[in-house]
Amino acid sequence: MKGIIDVTVRLIRAGRRAYARKWSFCWLFAAIFLGSVAALARLDLLPEAPDIPIVALIANQPDAMAASALAPIVSELPTKIEIPDISLAAVIVNPTTTDIPSLDEKLLKGVVRYPTSAKLGEDGNVVLFGHSSYLPVVKNQAYKTFNGIQKLAMGDVVTVYSSATAYTYRVRSVKEGRRQHSDSPLGCRESAHARDLQLVRAEDGPFRRGRRLC
After folding, report:
1. Do 102 and 163 belong together in one domain?
2. Inter-residue contact 159 to 137 (CB < 8 Å)
């Protein structure tokens, strides 16, 4: 019985000593952990985050070429985009400058039309880009604006609205590409179709990552 009591007393004393030195243990553990991470990073042995495909979509407006020959060109700024197949509905911002910090700021509000791309009703590509994030917790939902566009398939409907008109497009292709050496998201090859819609999913800003999509 006395032996059990002695062991119990020793355990209690050891626990008290460990508790009294808890901060020393915490700092020692933190130093060892950070040192290990730094060493692994220097050796390029840290696991990489899953590579989420960056996707852009090209859609053409049905009968746009035939209509352009019959009707006068009406230029309109886009104000809203809807893609029912992925439950996407977002406002579109139309900045007037191609300044990168300004474009990054506008992306925090939703979808952004690149200022030098075509307007609705004009011949050429209407280029819209928006953020995409798959983090579990995102305070600003604008970072998830273009989540899911990589799931779209040929023939899916994309509707872009101006203040007075709805423009309907059908998906023609969803491709992955790499960013060219340019500060413009218009580095992708122009389509042969007269009036196209190009959606570009931006991660960490429109020009921050090394890959882009066409």
Report:
1. yes
2. no
Can you give the residue range of the structural domain that contains 69?
56-212
8 Å CB contact between 128 and 92 = yes
Q: What is the pLDDT of residues 94-148, one digit of tens each?
A: 999 989 899 889 988 999 999 999 999 888 889 998 988 777 777 888 888 888 8
**Based on the number of CB atoms within 10 Å of its own CB, is 158 exposed (0-12), middle (13-18) or buried (19 or more)?**
buried
| Whether 14 and 69 share a structural domain | no
The DSSP-derived string for 113-149 is: E-TTSPPBTSSEEEEEEEE----S--SSGGGGTTTTG
Same domain, 161 and 77: yes
Q: Strands, E, within the chain: which ranges?
A: 56-60, 80-83, 88-93, 111-113, 124-131, 157-161, 166-175, 177-178, 195-202, 211-212
Number of domains in the chain: 2
Residue 49 within a domain: no
